[in-house]
Write a structure and sequence with these properties.
Elements: E1 13-17, E2 25-30, H1 45-51, E3 60-62, E4 68-70, E5 73-78, E6 84-89, H2 103-114, E7 129-136, E8 139-144, H3 151-154, E9 181-187, E10 191-196, E11 209-214, H4 218-226, E12 232-234, H5 242-246, E13 251-255
Length: about 270
């Protein structure tokens, strides 16, 4: 699934159909439907599962192994005292509505995230920012109040993606980003559909369409996978079924660690 990415930090097990990678479309099942599609204004992990690095991108991004690499910022310089980060943006990046992404959008995004009335779920990521300045259309200077070795890591979070002021009013239901996929449709309670962004600034994605299906019931999840109605299931909800999938050559079971927590407590 070249260039198609999902951010599944809270998933324990993913199941993939063996032949899914050869298709020009993919259907991914997940347990939870996102409450909205604004990663900068909601805490639900389900939002990032759909839109992180697919629809929206940040200055930096996470690789699958957790490494932080350039994204909309192609490079950066850090002052000797660790307080000033000067980002050089990728040229000729367009939002999905055809407007150009430039330094002013970065200033708007970071100032909005750290504003006093911000609803960003990870507002603490931006607390150390003293100022954000557009030096020129492709250069942004971020000044910190004190050195922070995690700053580039913080900028890779889904909560720090770059958004446009022109489309911010409808971001929850009609997200417009710079990513390799554009939002197409949301049939609430059933699925979200994404389509390839043919004007993408980076490597052209191989997959043309992607569908996220919401299946929370373990019995329905098992039936959907066995019938090959889905190409992959991220965070499969019924681990007792895994031996059956392991024994079936049609499927590959991927097991991984998670940052998610399950708490059993008293009422």
């Amino acid at each position: 699934m070249k260039r198609f990415q999902t951010f599944i930090a809270s998933s324990f097990v993913a199941i993939c159909a063996t032949g899914a990678l050869a298709n020009d479309s993919v259907t991914i099942a997940v347990q939870l439907e996102p409450p909205n599609l604004d990663p900068t204004g909601g805490a639900a992990q389900a939002i990032d599962t759909v839109v992180y690095h697919n629809v929206f991108e940040g200055l930096t991004r996470f690789e699958a192994d957790g490494a932080v690499v350039p994204s909309l910022a192609q490079s950066w310089d850090i002052s000797d005292d660790g307080l000033v980060y000067t980002f050089s943006l990728v040229p000729d990046v367009m939002f999905h509505d055809g407007t150009a992404m430039d330094a002013d959008d970065v200033v708007f995004s970071l100032d909005r995230a750290r504003a006093e009335d911000s609803t960003n779920a990870q507002k603490a990521l931006f607390a150390g920012i003293a100022s954000v300045e557009a030096v020129d259309p492709l250069t942004v200077k971020v000044t910190l109040s004190q050195p922070n070795g995690s700053f580039l890591f913080n900028m890779a979070w889904g909560d720090a993606v770059i958004v446009s002021e022109d489309s911010i009013a409808d971001i929850a239901t009609n997200p417009i980003g710079t990513g390799a996929y554009k939002f197409s449709d949301w049939a609430q309670g059933d699925r979200i559909e994404l389509v390839r962004n043919d004007a993408y600034w980076g490597d052209a994605p191989a997959i043309e369409t992607a569908t996220f299906r919401f299946i929370s019931d373990p019995t329905a999840a098992f039936a959907a996978v066995m019938a090959e109605d889905v190409d992959a299931f991220a965070g499969f909800p019924a681990p007792e079924n895994l031996p059956q999938f392991d024994a079936d050559p049609r499927f590959t079971v991927l097991r991984g660690n998670t940052e998610g927590e399950t708490i059993l407590s008293t009422n």
